[in-house]
Amino acid sequence: MSHVPDEHDLHAYIDGRLDPARRAEVEAWLARQPERLAELQAWQRDAQQLRAGLAGALPAPDPALDPGRLRAGLARRRRARYAVAASVLLSLGVGGIGGWQAREWSRAPAPMLAGVAPMADAIAAHRLFAARHDLRSDIPGGDVQPWLDANFSEPMRLPDLSAAGYRPVGARALATDQGAAALVVYQDAAGAAISFYIRPPGPRHHMLPRGDRRDGGLLAQYWSRGGYNYAMVSAGDDASAQVVRRALQAI
């Protein structure tokens, strides 16, 4: 291939924005790079989980990042070097990864929706933006509280994590079926991230009693107040969990 794909290429591949020739190069490279392929699959899963949590619907899995499918596509392209007539068969036929960022989610059946875990969208947003240090914030850390006050009806004050060395570094606006949501990211000097999430309730996102749940290596501590659902998401280790617990005891 002409050059190893960079982050821009990989994001464009996920979004279905590469031309056919470059897409074929990226697919060939991914077929030889199982670790990067796994990372791309994780990107897609996190984005799907976030959108499913925001909309309350779970999309069907997209098969285009299946390793076997990529390897099969690569094999077809190799055979095509010896048979021009076979070139029509070389495309995966799915337009990259299907442009999941541009499509509306299809609605899931009601039984599936009933199993949505509390604040699943908060955990997915943390994984997608905070854990990867890829917030691309809409507002800098020092202006987050006024921004929340302007965009939400009497939101609670941001928890103070400064005693543990964490400060807000920025916030990102998100959207749900019920209205605006927001993710605020705190970081310490080492770059460890804790996030604060606010969203309106809805048919599948009821007001919540105070609680917590683990998801992979993350811990979400959640509650409801003043017409909103809230969560703080951190690493699941005891030290990070205690930082959040102490802050929440003070509010």
Verbal overview:
The protein has helices spanning 7-15, 20-31, 34-55, 67-80, 110-113, 120-130, 144-151, 238-249, and strands at residues 139-140, 167-176, 179-187, 193-199, 211-215, 218-225, 228-235. By secondary structure, the protein is an alpha+beta fold. Helix 3 packs across helix 6. Mean pLDDT is 75; it is low at 57-61 and 78-114. It comes from Lysobacter enzymogenes. This is Transmembrane transcriptional regulator. The chain crosses the membrane at residues 80-100.
Topology:
Blueprint: H1 7-15, H2 20-31, H3 34-55, H4 67-80, H5 110-113, H6 120-130, E1 139-140, H7 144-151, E2 167-176, E3 179-187, E4 193-199, E5 211-215, E6 218-225, E7 228-235, H8 238-249
Antiparallel strand pairs: 1-2, 2-3, 3-4, 4-7, 5-6, 6-7
Helix pairs in contact: 2-4, 3-6
Summarize the structure.
The protein is α+β, with helices and mostly antiparallel strands and 251 residues long. The protein has helices at 7-15, 20-31, 34-55, 67-80, 110-113, 120-130, 144-151, 238-249, and strands spanning 139-140, 167-176, 179-187, 193-199, 211-215, 218-225, 228-235.
Which class of the largest domain in CATH terms?
Alpha Beta
Residue fraction in strands: 15-25%
Which consecutive residue ranges, at least 5 long each, have pLDDT under 50?
57-61, 78-114
Number of domains: 2
What is the average of the pLDDT values?
Answer: 75
Give the overall silhouette.
globular
CATH architecture of the largest domain: 2-Layer Sandwich
**Widest sheet, order of strands:** 1-2-3-4-7-6-5
| Relative helix content | 25-40%
